[in-house]
Each structure stands twice: as structure tokens, then as C-alpha cells.
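Hello K.,

You asked for the raw outputs rather than the summary table, so here they are, unedited. I folded two proteins back to back in the same session to keep the settings identical. This is the first:
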Amino acid sequence: MKSANKSRWALHTKNPLRAAVIITVALCCIGCSTSPKQKGPNNSDTYWMYSPDSLSIHPLSRFTQPKGKTGWRVVVHVEFKDGDDYACRGTGALDVSIYAKNGRLLATKPISLANAAGNYKLFDPVTRTYQIVFDGIPEESELVNVQATYTEPGSKLMRSNKHTVKNYK
């Protein structure tokens, strides 16, 4: 009688285990499915609801040394945030300026974010920032100061605080 009860118990425990395995495998397959291709913002003349409310130079900005080139490369990460404090994209004109330690302007890059393809190319979906690259920064540079200015369609001007990027040679 004990062995009959044991076999019934084994029968009841196999089904929930089998169901759990099937559900786990199904969830893994669903989780690994491909996501739809990113289309970027729509080309529209209407006001963009979640437009940038602020911009800043992200702390991920850094010096790197490009292979086969003289001088340093500075990769600047510019972050836009909407009114709800979420990272977002912009569609206006972005100017990023880089200054030497003594305050001398080294370079300025004017960037149009109105073009959907160009906007998508500069935007990093992992960090949710725009990556702007400056090459040819003088080799003796210990640090640079970076500032961004953004003009939204409709003439709303925003300026980031200056952010210091140190060279940890």
C-alpha cells in the first residue's frame, strides 16, 4: 500500500514540474525574440510633445587616444531631458564647444538634429545621449571644458553648464 501511494505522489509531482519546465522554456523563447527596427522620430512640422526641457554634458564624456593620429580625441556625451526628467531626443540645432584649460576655444561643432538619419546616427540608445567626437585636441591637454547650446524649433534656447573633462593619461 505504501508503494501505491508513492507512485501516485510521483505521478502528481511530474505534471507540475513538466508544466513549470514548459512555461520556463516558453518565456525564454519569448524574451529572446527580436525587437522591431528603430524608426526614429517622424518627419513632422508639428510640435514634438516630449521635447527637451534641459540639456547637460554627461559624466561619461572622456579623453581617448585614437590609433595612428596625433593629439587626443574627446568624446562628449550630451543628454537631453524632457519635462518629466526622462532622457529624450532633440530636433533642433545643437552646438557643442570645447575649451582649453585657459579658456581658449579649441573647437565648436554645429550639429543639425532635424535630419532623422543624422539624429539617429549620433544618438546612443544605451546611454541615451548624443555622442559628439572632437579629434586633434592638443597632446599637452590635461583637461578641457565642454559646453552645449541647443536651439529648439520655435527659438527656445538652452545652454548647459560647463563640464570639465579630465585627461587621465
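The second followed immediately with the same parameters:
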Amino acid sequence: MQVPPPFTRWRHIFQESFPSLDKYGSIYKDLHEHPELPCQESRTAAVVANHLESLGYQVQRDIGGHGVVGILNNGEGKAVLLRSELDALPIKEETGLPYASKVEQVDSDGYTKRVMHACGHDMHMASLLGAADLLSKVKDYWCGTLICLFQPNEERLLGAQAMIDDGLFDKIPLPDIVLGQHAVPTRAGTIGTRQDRVLGFLDSLSVRVYGKGTHSSTPELGIDTILMASCIVSRLQMIVAREIDFKEPCAITCGYFHGGTDASIIPDFADFKVDIRSYDKDIQLRAIKAVKRIIEGECQAANSPKSPRITTSTSCPPIDNDEEATAKFTRALRNFYGDEAPEKVI
């Protein structure tokens, strides 16, 4: 496939104005070395906001927490919003990189944790800042409004709503299209998208089960919450294996489990968190109902002194890509790259 003449011109314009990769590589390494947990992204937000201002963008800070928006008004035309995230994850980095994170922060549960950009948000930010730089340099060749949005608290799925609740769409032009991105572990140079549903439902449940504390030498005098919670977590896997049609994607995961203070003490409560994910609303509701049934049933079987505390900490709707916008995006990629088009546009 040959590149159409208008896109040949665009390729030349971009190549002539492309920003230094060394510059944005340094920004990436700095962000990677200094990650911040959700709702604590003050340094990260300052780096992003200051850089956008240096490029001539109109910047608004502290939207929905530490959210940042940079706006480049460039005459009449469409408003396009490009999105990245700010936050990192409570994970200890063991990459051995010279710019590896050594950051520790107190998380929302009160525990001090090591912090790492393990989900690519450092890459997303550096890429979006680079795109903002490039598009500002070539603004004589396009018209409209560019909105660069950096979302806080993405990992806990509350940042987008917080920005909206804080009046985001009163502070920026209403975008005609929103383009998000996310790195995936696949071949470099591969770009993927598809129409309709790309991400499914997610519900996160925070659970506390209750027992009776005692010394490990007298387990018969207590009700073991560690054992109770362990039985629940194991049993939850039977939902996908035996209650959900094998043709329906569904995943139930416990990624947080905490109980007790010492090996010799059986604690009187234990906490864990469960993620429930699927693509279909009916499957999602059925899985949530089954999870709660098993939690309550196992607590009753263990003779728990009171009912478990089950709260929904996060409930996230699916993401459906607009058919027309996806078709335009895919067509533009193929026209721009021609014979060098990404191998996989899905």
C-alpha cells in the first residue's frame, strides 16, 4: 500500500519537527524513578504541568485531585482530547535498572509500601508530552483544539469520575473525540484497536471476615479467620470453573489478603479484596452474587460470630469504542504508514 500524497506531506512535516527522543527518554526515566501512589501524584503532576506550560499550553491543575489538563487553542476545528495517567502501583521494583524506583509511600490502607510504575503510566506520560511538543511545533499545519489530559487515581478507577465531578467539562472545550492509549507486552511497532467493547466490567469487593482471636497453642478456643478467608478465596475459583459458561470470559481474583500481627496469634478478623471481571452484564451480576454467597456461606460454616462486611470499593463500566471513530483512526494509521503500517490493527 502506497502512502496517499497528503499523508506523504504529513510524514515529512512530522519528521522535520520530531522532538528529541533523548529529551523525552530523560523525562520517562525521571517519572519512572519517582512514582507516586493514587491520590498522591503531586510531584508527577507538577512535572507534567510545568512541561506543558513550557510548550505554550494553557494549563489547569488539581482537577479531581492532582489531575492536569493542557489546552492548545489553534483556531476553528475539532477538539481532540488525548489522555494519559499519573499514578503508579504499590509494587517493589526489582528490575535492577539504574533509574529503578526506591520510593516508599503510605497507602490508603495505612501501610507503607514500595512504589513502582509497573503499568506503563510513565511511558504514557512521556509519550503524550512528546506528542504535545510535536503537535505544538506543527500547529501551522492543522487547526482546532488539542486537549492533553493527565488523569489521577486511575489504578483505583476513581480519577476520571473525580475529574468530571470537579467540573472538568466546564473547564475545557467539549471534545469531539477522546483517544486513550495503553502499552501492552507485544512486538514494538504494533498498534492495536477494535470497534465496540475493548474492556469489560470490573467490580472490586473489600471483605472483612470475623472470628475469635486466640493463641496458636489453643486453636480450639478461637475461630480462625486466616483459615476462614483462605477457604473463601480457594472456593471462589469454583465459580468460573463450575457456574459460568466456558464460552463467557470471566475472571475472579484475590490480589490482597491481610490478617494478623504475629505467627503465634490467631487474629479475630482478616481482610481481603476480590476483583470480578467479565464482558457481559448478566455474567457480571451472576458472578458478584455467587461471590457474596460463598463468602457468607463459608463464614456461617466456620461459625463466625457475625456476618462478614462486604463493600464495593470500585464499580467500573465497560469501555466501548465508537465504530466511526475507530474506523477513522485505523484508516489514518494505514494511510500514514503505508507499506510500513503496523502489522496488527485489531
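The mean pLDDT is 95.

Happy to rerun anything if the numbers look odd on your end.

Regards,
P.
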